Amino acid sequence: MNRKFFAIIMSLLLSCVLVSAQESAKSSLQQRAEEEASSGKVANARSLYIRAFEDYASKGQMRQSVECGAKATALYYRENLYHEAFEFLHRVDQAISNSRPSASENAALRYYTAKERMQMYMKMKRAANAKEFLNTMENLAATAHDDAVSNDLLYSKAVYYYTFGLTAQGNAVFKEMAAKLTADKEYDKVEEAYKTLIANGRRSNSASLVAQSYSSYIAWKDSVDAIKVADERAALKKQIADNEATIAEKDSSLTTRQAIIIGLAVLAAILAAALVLGAIVLMRFILLTRKQKKTIKLANENNALKAKFISNISAQLDPTLQKLDARQPEVKALLDFSSHIQTLSELENSDAPVELENTQVTPFCEALIEEIRPKVKSGVKLTVTAPKMSAEINKEYVSHILRHLLKNAAEYTPENGTITLEFKKRGPHTHQFLVTDSGEGIAEEKREDVFKPFLEIRDLTTGDGLGLPICKQMAQKMNGDLDIDGQYTKGTRFVLELHS
Description:
The protein is α+β, with helices and mostly antiparallel strands. The protein contains 16 helices and seven strands. The chain is about 65% helix and about 10% strand. Strands 2-4-5-7-6 form a five-stranded mixed β-sheet. Strands 1-3 form a two-stranded antiparallel ribbon.
C-alpha cells in the first residue's frame, strides 16, 4: 500500500489518530488507555491518555503525544466536560509550541487540536464556532502539505455539513474523497469510509446523517458493482483477443511448415492441420466456459455478500435508531427503511421451505378489506369477491402482500372510486388473489421497475420503494409470483398467483 492511500484509510477509520512509519510502537500507557476505553471506563482511560500524552511529549514524539491528547480531550467532552476539554487542548497546544517543530509539522499537529475544538462545537450545536475552526483547519492543512491531513479535512468537512443539515455540500466533499479511492479501484477502503461516516452519525444521534450516508452508500455500491462487472468483461474480452492472436500466430506458423513439407506428405499435413485446429478450438471453448462459470460464481457470491452486509448494517443500526424519537417523520421513515432492509435480506438469503395451512378464503379476505376501510377516501366502494372455500396458503406472507397492495390502492384511489379483492381458482393446485383499484394506473414502462429494489435514491419520508420488491420475494418463496395485469386499463390490477 503506498503512502498516499495508507494515510487516507487511517485518517478515515481512526479519525484523529496520527501514525508514522518511522516512529516506534504504542507505549504501554497508550495500550492500557485503549483497553480501558474499550471497556467503557472513561475516567481511567482519560487519565492514562493524559499520562501517555506527557510521556510522549517528554521524549519528543509529538505525533503520538498529540494523538493521545486528542483522545483524552474526546473523553472529556464525551461526558460534557467542555471547560476541562478546552483547557486541556490549551496544554496540548503549549506542548506543540515547546517542541519547536518545523512550520509544516506545527501546522499538521495543530490541525488535530483545531479539529477537536470543531467537534466540540458541533456537539454543542454551535455552527458558527464550528465553522470558524473548520476554516482554521483548512489553513493549517494548506501549510502542512500532508496527505493524511488533506484527506482528513475532506472527511471533517463532510461530517460538519451533514451535522448542520448542509446535505449538498456534505455530498460534494464526501464524493470527492470517495472518488479518489474509487478511481484507483480501492473499493474496500471506500466501503470502510462509508461505514465510518454511518457510525459517526450513530454516535452523534443524527438521523439525517445516518439516512443520507446510507442512501449514498447504496448508490455508490450499485455503481461500483457495475464498474466491477464492466472491468471483468473488459479483462475477459482482452484475454479472448490475446488468445485469438496467439492462435492466429500459431496457425500462420503451422501453415508455413505445411507449405515446406506439402510435396512429401500432402494428406498427412492436411490431417495434422485439422487435428491441431480442432484441438485449439476445443481448448479455447473449455477455457472460456470455465472462465464464464467462474465469473458467474463470483457475481453470485458478490450479491450474497452484499445482501449479508446490508442486513448486518441494518441490524447494527436498529438499536441506535430505536432510541430516537419515532414521532419524527424522518426517524420513523429510517426505522421503516431499516426494517424493510432486514426483511428483504432475510428473504433473499433464506432457503427454508414455506409452510402452508388450510385457510377459509372468504373471512380471510373480508378481514383484510376491513383493515383499510378507515384509510380510503370519501365514497370509495370496497368489494370482496371470494367463494366459500378453503385454500392451502402461507397466511403470514399472503396477508403481508395483500395488506400492502390494499394500502397502496387506498392511497391512490380517488373519491367515489372502487377497490376490489378477488380470489379465483385457476386449477387443481393453482389459485390467484387479485387487487384492483380505479386509480390512474401505472405506466407500462414503469411496471417492471416497481419490483426492483434500490433503483433510485429516494426521500425516505415519502417511501423507500422496498414494499413491492419484498412482496415479490415473498410470492416467489411460496412458489408463485406477483405481477401487474397489463391487459387491465381502467386502473391498476395486481395478480398474486400461488401454486400449492
